Amino acid sequence: MTKSNLLSIAAMMAALTVSAVAQRPAAPPPAQPKQTPAVTPPTGVAQLPTSKMAVIYTDAFLDPKTGIAKFNTLLTKLNAEFAGPKDELTKMQQRAQALQDEITKLQQAPAGTPIDQRTVNAKADQLEQLKKDIQRKGEDAQTAYNRRRQEIFAPLQDEIGKFLEVFAKARGINAIIDGTQVPLLYAADSIDITRSFIAEFNSKNPATAVATPPQ
What we know:
It is a single chain. With 215 residues, the chain is mainly alpha-helical. Helices cover 48% and strands 4% of the residues. It has a two-stranded parallel ribbon. The chain is elongated. The two termini are 40 Å apart. Mean pLDDT is 78; it is low at 1-30 and 209-215.
């Protein structure tokens, strides 16, 4: 995976110059030895910490083939729980399309054929009500889906976060950037830990988690 990041590092350099000017006396005693002036080391100079940075792309966690296995296991369970509402909405949408086709056919009657306006109006009323029902059921289903998704995935997200901290400390990494969230202009492949993190997480956390049953 090649994504880029431009890391702007502002470096501040301080230089301390010490100059000593010694004046030679007019007639120094011949037996007096020369004295070397004492050099005082500069004070207040802090040692800068060394840092090791890495980049991770969390969107790769969701890849069904190469991502974090637990994500896919939980997602399959979540979608199975909402298969019923999804099928119901699909059937309602199909019924709405059928009504729309019937109305269009009645309105496009051949020339000279009277249009049964009462039937057209009745079907139009049915279609309008069906559209309202689809919107209401769809919104309710989406709200329930989002709430259930949060319930299912929150523990896994915490687990991944803790594991990432352990993973970083074990490798001396003290800063990780999520390339999925932060636009990167350049990042060397050597600091991309995505694949190694996923592999290690999967090896130590097999996809055997069972989703919490619906409340």
